[in-house]
Hints:
This protein is of the alpha+beta class. Helices cover 24% and strands 24% of the residues.
Amino acid sequence: MDRRENPRPVVCWLCGEAFTLPEDEGEGNLPRVLLCSHIYCTSCLLSIQCDGTIKCPECEVESTLPEGGVNALQEDSRIIGLIYTAKINKMKSIRMEKSRRKKKSSSPGVNDSTEDVEQQVCLADQKVDVKKTEKSVDEALVRAAGNLALLEHIHETLKTGLTEQVKLEQARLEKEIKQSSEKAFNAIQKWKDVQLSQLNKLEARFSTSRMELGRVQERIKSLGIAMQMAREVCRVPFLEQYCTLDKVLETLQAPVDKWSFNTECITVGSGLSCVFQSEGLNQSLSLSLKMIASNPKRLSEFPPKGSPPSYSYRKSPGQHSESRNINSVPQSHKRPPSPQKQEQGSQRANSPSPQCSPPNLRPHRRASAPLYGSTSDIRTPDVIVEEIIEDGRVEGSPPTGPELANDKWRIQRKRKSLTLSNKRSVNQWVVVTHVVNPSHFYVRYMAERRGSEILSSKIHYNCCSESCRFTAGDTVETGSLIFVKQEEGLWCRGNVVEVSQIGCVKTKKACPASQLASISVFLIDCGQTKNLTIQSEEGSSESSLKAVNNHLRKVSESLNAELSNFAAQAIRCCLKDLVPYDLSKGWSEKAQVEFCNVVGSAAVEMRPFGQDQDSLLVDLRKAPMDQSSDVPISVREYLVFIEVARFYSPVSLGRKPLSYYPPVYPKMNTEVNAVVSHINSPADFYIQLVDSMESLLLSAKLQECYNATTVAEGDDLKVYCPVIEQAYVARYEDKLWYRAQVIGHPGERKVEVRYVDFGNKKVLTVSDLRKIKDEFFALPSMAIRCCLSDVNPVDGETWSEACIDRFIKLAHQKLVTIVAKAASVPKTRPLPVKLFESGLDGPQANIAELLVKEELACFREDLKSKDARPRDVGDESTIWDPPLDLGSAADGADAPDQKLSDDVNEEPLQFQPQLKLPAQLKDLKVRVSHVNSPSSFYVQLTQNDSQLRRICELVKKECAPVEPDEDAVWKADMYCAAHINGVWERGQLCSDVISNNIAEVMRCDHGSKVKVHVSSLRPLPQYLIGSLALECTLTDIRPAGGRSTWTATACDSISYYLTGASAVMTIKELTDERPQPITLCCSNKMGQFVSIADFLTSEGLALRERKPRDAGDQKPKPADAQSPVSVAHTPGPDGDKPDALPFPYLLPFPPISPIIGPPTPPKPAPRTIISAEKVKTQLYQPPELPCLGHIQINVSAIGEDGYIYVRTKNAECQLKQLRKRIQQSIKTLPRQKPYTWKSVLGCAVIGSDMLWYRGQLLDVLGGYVKVQYVDHGLVENIPVVHVHPMLLCEDVPQLCMPCQLHSISPVGGRWQRDAVALLRELLLNRCVDMQVMELPSDPRAPLPVELFLDGMSLSKIVSHHERTIERTASELKGSYTMTPPPFLDDWDIDTEGLRGPEEQMLGPYSYPNLPQEGEHFKVRVKHLWTPNELFLWPLVGTDDLEVYGETLDAALTRINEDIDGLPRLTNFPHGGPCLAEYSDGKYYRAKLIKITSIEPVMLLVQHVDFGSDDTLPPSKLRQMPVELLGFPSRALKVKVAGFKAPSVKTEEGMLPYSPGWSVKATMAMMDLLHNNITASVVARDPELTVLLFNEGGDLVHESLVSQGLADFM
């Protein structure tokens, strides 16, 4: 286009379109500036926005959009000015052109002279030249202005970009320089630590000094022995004949001088030095620290830490489509996206997408463990942890491969886990002492390091004595314990493995010490086997013994017994499930070296799994080698990672991998709706059939199961050695779990999997795999591999990229219609199908023909083009109906739906405040407004929508202007107008509004209940009272599982699917009862109507009601026009009801004429209905109650209500006789009849062991009855067929009697499950002592008792576990009490010499005397627990109390001055007085509450003068002087009467220890208690209760109630 005709000074760089200004009819395309200063048009910015941000296509800098979105971004004023200028110039040129044409059109007169004509022509030419010049100049100026603006923009962009570029590069280089410097410093520091650690071995370099020191030590030792022998000879002269006195005297008289020893050796240095070579410093630094200049890279390749990753335009399985189009795909049918080719991604990158794509996950960095050299003995961590004790669990071998599906293995594993559940497994810190290979190495516990040092000292001390030296008469035997000298000069224990004698070739079991040639010793404290060769310089026995004693020492019997208390320090271990990388070659030397390098000499964490013979199966975890990571490194995984080992999975030979069920193929030549989940090419793609609602829940169940697994369960489900074609669960990039199958091993601990429900493939790490549970095998694979049946590639061989891209756009992730052209195909071949686009009117275009028309594919040579409609293909019975529309006239003028539609559209509408159902009660269109359960939900008729809007307008008009009445009294069941979510609605109060000003209102037109403030309520006019919501219940179903109420799962499921959904309702019989019984059908994603009752039944959440059928039901029903929803026949004149359809419903077919219909099936014979027999039975006789006192009983059952069912010894004997009598009296089973169970009390029950028992009927639950065994106490739900309404041995009373604990009550007023479980664990099937406290008036009532377990009261035990609370004195008043008998044997214990307690046992604190009830007295609040529970100090009579002439404050001041003189507390009785240190460093009076922890020891104390609690160690507790007991306690715990916690919680912050009270209420109460407060005693029992008054005499808590922070009691 000519620029003069359409001047466009500036265009958008992204789309190439010109910027335009808003016109009268268009919005325009204005230029807008991003934060990076790049300018794009509004259309482009709208297409690339995502979640309130825009990523610049040029520099990839993200810009956050303001509140107004893209239209609120700043506009570029310069470009807008240029556009205005160009537009004005264009208009100016048009006006000039029009004037020029107008002048040309006016011609001169005929009578004018030739000169005038020539003169006018000249003037016109001059004017034309001037105009052309002006026009050229204007165009040039316009173009120059555009160029100038563009240059200025480019200059500004480059200037800003240069500044930002320098800033980013400077920050990056500074960071890299710091990191490199830190690494260099760390390397130097590590070198320093290594060298300093080597200084510990510096003594070995002074061999001369060590030799001289040894000579002096030997001389000292020999002189000491000689002196001792001389003293013994002097004391006992006859000992002279037992020793060589001459040698002793020679030793004693041998001269000693300093010249006989070389003392100059201590002045010689080691010869080592450390120097700093400054001349090589620069060269070393240039080699290790270097600035590298390389090709410049984009700044986006170096994102700063924390920056978000780049975006892509691929979809993930977790992405939800927001479109409501029929081609939108349900969430469950989306798949993990398959990896596309790079060319495809580049081609589609420039196309703007209306949806946001999730960020691509960065590739996982594979942490490569550095290989340390063998010269360094220091490993990370540098700090050796001496003792670390942790509680863990016993972890077994993780199952791998197909073992997960082995039922036998599962049962064994479950039993093993139950057996080991109470054991403890501790992760120990160890040091590896010796390595043979990864399957054979030894470790030493760091926790036993002190014991090792003590053992080493003891061994070294004994080895220095002469008694441990070998003599000529000693023998070295195989298996004996000896001491061996190591290279470091330390002695250690060893077991003799084999010995060789001088002159003998074969080894011997025993050898004299003087003839020892070589010996092999296993060092039991380090795990190493050491071979020693004895070499003597001379051949004499003395030289041989000297050579032996240089390396070995013997262990005497006494020393051996003493050392037997020290277990072997080296523990043999084996890395679990690890085998050599090449099984034929075994463990390589590299595996041993790498194992030693990664473990080193530092402490590592050992995780035990089990034991295999004499080896412990473990995994070692080392601290991370990378400083930036805190994840420990598994040695097993590291060895597998470097490919020197691999995991072993014991797979039995010939066993097939565990696979999924194959997918269910659609029927041949039948139209089926499906979703295309993954596409490789038109000849290889995957679909999912849309025919089952179970698949909708699969993804949610997978996430719930695998995201909620505990650590122990996660370890059990981990995969270590994946098996080809094995079924697993794999995690995709969106962090969600999907069913998958392993199809390949690429290597490097990665696997290739195929997602069986979607069809795409992915390469994952093994850590992203989990073993699949049995419950996920129920559904077959949902992805069906298909191919287009009638087309081939254009070139006949390969599909082009253009064809694949077009096919993806047409079908990928869209709802389509398929027609299968084969019934079944081999497993390796795809299913040939025809693919049609789906629309509102059914199938549309054939996708294969679309590809052929676009010349992207061609038909097969043996086929011709066929009709795109699948109706002409194959089965003629396949008929497509349009989607159901109940308001259409599809069935003719007489259709009831047409009448209904006409009624709805009538104008004007008649005002109806109350719901009125139409005369036609079938197929009513409704909307579900609220769901409580399948037996209670509310619906609204869609025909009443206009009525509902009109009612809301009238309520707003009548009630909105009315001011709230503070004095209004709101009672239950009153109608009102409520302002809810900004809308005035009709409501009805559910309860009275008393003090908290919060009302619970039921919305009359919706059915739900809400809580609103009374200020949002108004009186409702009488003419507006009514309701447009109908409460309904589903018919013909009942709760599953024998329950009388619906489960939470059923309620949540139906609420999830129905709330807000449109449905079709049919009222079978209109009644006045509410809820109204109805049948309800809803449309699924395919437009098919599904019965909600059938859906709940198919999900196992409900059961069908069993109803007797009479003979009339068997009559054939007349053929009639079918309803669009009710596929069964409509009711006939005889009132027959439509039959139920199997789940799921399909779209109905048009009615078939009775003439051409199938023949009527033969009538079944009518069944006879047997009426229920009315029967009535009485209860069995009550049990015989024992007398007051103690008695031995057996506990047979514990009820859920905490009742304990027991039998006496006499009852046990009677029970045996009763069993024989019952079994002998009944020889055959009674005939089963239908009974009316309402009047049945006593009954006979057939137990699971097929024996008869006596029972009592408690409740009837559908096909089950709830029965209690009267002789055992057990309660079970039993099928009706196993219960008979008759009494067995009715002359025998019940042998089991219910009991309840006398002195305690359960926490919360009812027995919780954990408390009942504790009782069952303690009592069930045990013989215990029972004390009967009182006899009830009703012999069937529970018996109040006390039970004793080995002399301990059961009530005390349960109260100690904080499951119950003790009853107050008023509750136990009048009860019979009796002390338990002594259960201890009469031991004759001698107490002589036993010490008494070191400290004086002090009594409890005293409490101040309070005035009489009703009297007011001044108090001071010391501590606040909750607003109605606090500690106060009565000031009357206690303020100036003195004991021994001083007050309490003065006494505490005196004691704190010399607190170190008081002894520490050594006795810790409950409630014992003591002095406890407070946070200010001073000690105050306190009492002991309980011991809170053992390691370390911590005690909970309460400061009796303040009321606060504190947890302290014993070091901060002191014994209290006895004179301090004379002062009464200054903090008295009371309960404030008159108010309680609010019933409606309107505040967010609640007290964690008392959730009923808010923090705001507590702070407000504290503010009220700062003034002068008086109190009045209200009650003293069961707890001290008072009323608090302020200075004005008003109750303190009234302010809290007025603020809505509390309620009146």
